[in-house]
Amino acid sequence: MGEDRMDMVVVREFDPSRDVVVVEEVERRCEVGSSDKLSLFTDLLGDPICRIRNSPAFLMLVAEMGGEIVGMIRGCIKTVTCGKRISRKVNHHSISYNPVPVYTKVAYILGLRVSPSHRRMGLGLKLVCQMEDWFRQNGAEYSYMATESDNHASVKLFTGKCGYSRFRTPSILVNPVFAHRVTVSNRITIIKLSPPDAELLYRRRFATTEFFPRDIDSVLKNKLNVGTFLAVPRESIRFGLWAGSDHFLSDPPESWTVLSVWNCKDVFRLEVRGASRLKRTFAKTTRIVDKAFPFLKLPSVPAVFRPFGLYFMYGLGGEGPHAAKMMKALCGHVHNLARESGCGVVATEVANSEPLKLGIPHWKMLSCAEDLWCIKRLGEDYSDGPVGDWTKSSPGLSIFVDPREF
Known about the structure:
Belongs to the acetyltransferase family. It comes from Populus tomentosa. By secondary structure, this protein is an alpha+beta fold. It contains nine helices and 15 strands. It has a seven-stranded mixed sheet, sandwiched between helices. Helix 3 links the parallel strand 5 and strand 6.
């Protein structure tokens, strides 16, 4: 595209009072799947900014050419953990060394779309650059994005033209919601924590996890947060009474796990298209059999060929030799909650090296073995001195995936 054509492009802030219908049409044009391949489509339920609305700061930009919207991009900013340092504390005659989080302000890019008729004209690059300007103006020190590892066009744009580098490769694990309830071991007690209790537990034990949001309290108090659930051995809760996270952390059982649940069903819906009639019939048959004979506990394919919702599990953590088994129990509990709410699947995203990954039920055919996160430094003056250049740091065992951005 020549300079004169680029001058005709106007990038401005999304206006919900007049842009919604046109933006939805551009989204539909961008989601044209192959006729012989299964494709995943997203329905934003009439709210183009639904996936960033709950972030501390967010912006959506649209690109116009000749008065017609031909592209858009979304971005949000938050403060997260990018590393840790050791704090030395002298107390009477003893000295303790404790890890404390190092925070940085990070921006996230998502929902970049360019109309098929206007691709390869530099519009995507222009939208990214404009969004990065807003990031810098608001003090963001890093910018990152996530895409499928095999999305070559997106990877080429960000790593080739925008200066991003490959950063992390977490796994997206998806499990179907069956017509039958999943049995949870009666040797494990599952406790629903109050938001203050959950916040205390997360800040005490997981604040040094990479990408841990500093405003975890806002996440846990959000109306979309279904709850935070703790799994412990049944015998560890005396008289069946929960004494609070402070008491729990002072003397935790040998093994325990925790996770939180986010209701994506009320934010967006998904739909799988491109399936043959044979596949649709088979899927429907499995559901009918499962519903008619729930005691058989047969694995059934959910109704993913029409719009369905999901529950997203985040903040997964725990410790002990039986932690994976307890995580499996928690996932079973979430499955049953999702079933009651009419969701089609339960999903989560974890680091590839996550120790608890073995306890997370999922179907490989529905999951993404390797998502790709790319990152970029936005300036030279940083508050994260002890970490240095985060883009060059080694990945940790775990990663905290913010449900507001999934």
